[in-house]
Design goal:
Helicase, Ruva Protein, domain 3; Rossmann fold; elongated; binds glutamine; peptide chain release factor N(5)-glutamine methyltransferase activity; EC 2.1.1.297; transferase
């Protein structure tokens, strides 16, 4: 017989040193394996686990121990106030990316019938959050990778977002000249030789969503170069980027003719979102 309390202690021990949050991960894996809520876990620690629940727990624990992201194992991740489906093939939405959503909501008129593109939408996190917050806007979510696009479509459908269209494509290639009011993106921006790419959660996430050339700026350069062609006069561009890329991204926006360039910081106080 194994109680929930014993199973929890076992999981915590197994994950100690392997993940950044062994306590939380252990709780969530146990709840998923047992099919219970965290409230139940806390309220009835003496409840016993059935054999199939124990077996499921071993499988989930092995996956997490190998570094697979929690969001892939649980099949979902909270972003903004949405629960999004995620899985291998899409970047796991990060809290820092909510800054991109906040900056966009703050910069553009609420009720105007704007057309806003989200480039490299992945799970659809940014586009879904914007579509939900701004029913008057039309969101076009563009993604190159078919598996990611399928997940984004599923998220848009589950959330009932009728003002969100999905498009398979390469950055802004399919966009007509001067047709957009806004372009937002959390593109890949990690340097290709960054050793973090081979470690921890990152090694399980799609490399095309993370790495962008020797200085990490390949995707951003491409977007910024094409944005002026696609934006209407007075249009707006906002990009997430690495903590040390603020000066380079501001310089790129400036060189492309964008004005009112500003950078917002993330939860850790690092430069994270630059717009113009
Ligand atoms: N912020 C992510 C990380 O460093 C990278 C996401 C991205 O490249 N868009 O884990």
């Amino acid at each position: 017989m194994t109680t929930l309390a014993e199973a929890l202690a076992h999981c915590r021990e197994a994950l100690a040193g392997l993940t950044e949050s062994p306590r939380l991960d252990a709780e969530l894996l146990l709840c998923a394996a047992a099919g219970i809520s965290r409230t139940t876990l806390m309220a009835w620690p003496e409840r016993t686990l059935a054999a199939d629940q124990r077996r499921r727990l071993q499988v989930l624990l092995a996956r997490r121990s190998s570094g697979e992201p929690m969001a892939y194992i649980l099949g979902q991740r909270e972003f903004w106030d949405l629960t999004l489906r995620v899985g291998p093939g899409v970047l796991v939405p990060r809290p820092d990316t909510e800054r991109l959503v906040e900056a966009t909501l703050a910069a553009l008129p609420v009720d105007a019938a704007l057309t806003c593109v989200d480039l490299g939408t992945g799970s659809g996190a940014v586009a879904c959050a914007l579509a939900r917050e701004r029913p008057a806007w039309t969101l076009i979510a563009i993604e190159h990778a078919a598996p990611a696009l399928a997940i984004a479509a599923d998220n848009a459908r589950r959330l009932g977002l009728g003002n969100l269209q999905l498009l398979r494509g390469d950055w802004l290639d399919a966009i007509a000249p001067r047709s957009l009011d806004a372009i937002v993106s959390n593109p890949p921006y990690v340097c290709a030789d960054d050793p973090h790419l081979a470690r921890g959660d990152l090694q399980h996430e799609p490399i095309t969503a993370l790495a962008a050339g020797a200085d990490g700026l390949d995707a951003i350069r491409r977007i910024v170069a094409d944005a002026p062609r696609c934006l209407r006069p007075g249009g707006w561009l906002a990009l997430e980027h690495g903590w040390d890329q603020g000066p380079s991204v501001r310089a790129l926006l400036h060189a492309a003719g964008l004005r009112d360039i500003r950078t917002q910081r993330d939860l850790a106080g690092h430069e994270r979102v630059t717009s113009g």
